[in-house]
Amino acid sequence: MSSPSGRSGLHPGTVDMTHGGGGRAMTDLIEDLFRRHLTNPILDQGHDAGVFDVPPGRLAMSTDAHVVSPLFFPGGNIGSLAVHGTLNDLAMAGAKPVSMTAGFILEEGYPLSDLERIVISMAEAAREAGVPVIAGDTKVVEKGKGDGVFITTAGIGVVPENVAISPAAARPGQVVLLSGPIGDHGVAILSKRENLEFETEIRSDSAALHGLVDAMISAVPHIAVLRDPTRGGLATALNEIAHASRVGCVLHEEDIPVRPDVQAACELLGLDPLYVANEGKLICICEAGDADRLLDVMRSHPLAMQAAKIGDIVEDDDCMVTMQTGFGGARVVDWPSGEQLPRIC
Amino acid sequence: MSSPSGRSGLHPGTVDMTHGGGGRAMTDLIEDLFRRHLTNPILDQGHDAGVFDVPPGRLAMSTDAHVVSPLFFPGGNIGSLAVHGTLNDLAMAGAKPVSMTAGFILEEGYPLSDLERIVISMAEAAREAGVPVIAGDTKVVEKGKGDGVFITTAGIGVVPENVAISPAAARPGQVVLLSGPIGDHGVAILSKRENLEFETEIRSDSAALHGLVDAMISAVPHIAVLRDPTRGGLATALNEIAHASRVGCVLHEEDIPVRPDVQAACELLGLDPLYVANEGKLICICEAGDADRLLDVMRSHPLAMQAAKIGDIVEDDDCMVTMQTGFGGARVVDWPSGEQLPRIC
Known about the structure:
Two copies of one chain form a homodimer.
Chain A (H helix, E strand, L loop, with lengths): L23 H15 L10 E6 L2 E10 L5 E2 L2 E2 H14 L4 E12 L4 H18 L3 E9 L7 E11 L15 E4 L5 H10 L16 H10 L5 E3 L5 H13 L2 E5 L7 H10 L13 E4 L4 H9 L8 E7 L6 E4 L5 E3 L13
Parallel strand pairs in A: 5-6, 10-13
Antiparallel strand pairs in A: 2-7, 3-4, 5-7, 8-11, 8-12, 9-11, 10-12, 13-14
């Protein structure tokens, strides 16, 4: 099977209802478009289910539905995002991803050439991550009953024996590390959606974090908490952890990295970067004595070169997240009450 | 946590965009509606990924996107269907299902009380099957960008060591068994969609088949092919198998069970039951000498009491499926060329 990446216009036409009907048109679409790009020995078995070997032990399993709008954005598209989203959920449980599935819901009339670009991105992201898409499903809905393409991925991974990462494992005295600047993904999506132009293009940070996590766990197996601050951003993720662990969290404002262009865009858009989604960043909560070692490991990885210690876990029966500002003040970093950014992932 | 099944009107109001925003409204929806009904020790860990033990060996993994319209139909709804669909994909690989995930795409404005009915059905189907939903995700799209509720489930299962079921394993001399009457699901959906009334209500056959498969494999581990004839029906499933195995298939028309009311409805609707979707039936291809033993096992199971031998696998380089009719004639049972029934599952 030759690589199709260089070809364009391979699939003229648009999705129609026959592509979801179970007949020849559907089989052709699956063979010509999905299987061709996502090819791997397990998918190629042609089962509805992919079958493969796993070592004994603990598995992690996760799913993510993706409805991002627009489907294409600086730094990625729904295809690569759907791979990264599920791989990151697994990585945040300390798991080494093994395989993924992908369920597509296509809207009648969607251009097949754009669908192919999405599937190629998905295939590239899977290949780069070293994790195959081993089973899939395609459904078609009438025009006006969907929005182009929705992709729901699921994944499984193997959890190393000595790892017990959990959002409920944060303890007072531990510290909060962040792998890099926040807000890039959300601002990239919203800028594209609103047709905003900035001096420099702000790109999504969408990336698969399991390689970074693997390096971190190899250095410090007893990491307490890992979390990717996606929808709702850093503020929501930390509130969830504080709530699950029954602890408080004190952040240091000047230590939280935000790119100047993202900061400027947030001010223009009336957003607080703390609440804006990321797709290639992680929070790590660990013993204070392990922080420097982990920061060294993180900063030597291409996805966490700007890693920083941003806060401390403290005793607090009210499970509050607070922020110490540059001028000695402090404020509560609350849960977002309503909608921040719809359809951000 | 008390059982909520008896309560109604628990969730007034409708889905709004804040339910997908990553903030408190989303957390409340997940806690009050999804986690409460789907509760199990792994889901209750509160990870984005569920973590659990598996025995060593081969795993099967599968996914199904569900866009059925209408969402509620005689014999089930999208919640129970989403569980059955994925469990059946696993069972058709001979796997014993272990766990599932569920990704929900909700349309703004959808009644929360109906969503709760769907989640309760999903929880009941999972409980009945003995397979927990261990992780999930919820997204919300604007009104007019979805159609109420779409659910994509994924599942994994353990494949017993001595089992090697594959759509490519059919061989000349083997026989084709069918677990019961065909067409019920498709006709139930279409009757409801078109507001057709028949003397007796035609109900979907939606059911989880892994218990039946377990009994069949215990009796005859070396079954060649299992397949659930869903979208595209029996005709499409057999054409796919013939194509994958490079064999022909000869069916005997009078041996294929179809309920009289389903037959009558198909005539009214201009449908051929051979092409109509099923959600609780399976095709089994096995050695001729194992057929009686398998039929005994199947007929003593509540989901296959009308199991029958319906055809033979033959040599045929053209991989044709043909039908011998009652009057000694024969006709080709081709792939459906276009759409039979959109949004049937």
